[in-house]
Amino acid sequence: MNLSLKSIVTKGIYILGIIGSIASIAAIISEPKFQKPTIIVGLLLVIGTIVYLTTNYLYRRRKEIRDLQVRVGILEKTQRVPFFKKWPLIYSHLWKSGEVTPNNQIDLVNLELKVKIRDGNKFRDALCSYRFVGKHTKESWNIKIVIGGDGIIDYSQLKFSAVDNLRNMTLRARISDKGRNTTVKDIIISFDTLKKENEYFDLTLEWEWPKMLFFSSDYIALPNIFSDRTQNLRIMLQKSNEMNLRVVEAYKYGISDDKPTFLRAVYPSNLNKDLYIFELMNPEKDADYLLYYET
User: Fold this and answer.
1) Positive or negative, the Cα torsion across 29, 34, 40, 43?
2) Which residues contact 209 (CB under 8 A, 6 or more apart)?
3) Quick one: pLDDT at residue 161?
């Protein structure tokens, strides 16, 4: 059945449904016990509300499907675009382009990103976590971070959590004042006490971004923008069981770079064949570090 014939059949069924509804209303109204005007008006309002809600739901579902089809088409076309050309067009250091910048006065011993790809279809949910281990270089009540993903998802849908590992305590987190809540989110995490200069911290931040990664090829990124200095950087990518990754590569995209620079190929961990780990000592300040994959 071609598209035009499907459309004709769908419209025909819809018209028959309307005719059937009108006939049903007429039959109900013709009954003597439903002759009172208030009952008739009430029935019409109820039926009208049901028709409106159903039509509105179907319209939104069709729009979601159309938008998803367009997005799949664009991503499938960009698979043939060289990776180094895609990245600058999509992000290009969006991390630091907002009114709120994560200019924390801290030194990081370890900066870590872990992304676990969920089972699914072409678009996969991603369970993500940051781990920050370091010390404060000045007194502070807060730490500011930035996270990014694909699709405009409200912060409330990310199930974001922040844990102080040294005290086994959940911390308060929210979107920063004047912060973004779009594909890039500016988040502020507040401590329960004033942190002193040279005081150490160990934080784990977790969230889940729906439909963030494309199954056949995509990348995750860790920006080295959260501290004055970072000693060790680690990116971990855990694929779902059925994914067969042909390529996993690490790149650096610095402020002065015109394209991402290839660093090295990344291989599965000896302890877990689904886990890929990239580590680097003394990473470049304000650079994005990327882990790119292809199935």
Assistant:
1) negative
2) 125, 126, 128, 147, 149, 150, 151, 153, 158
3) 97
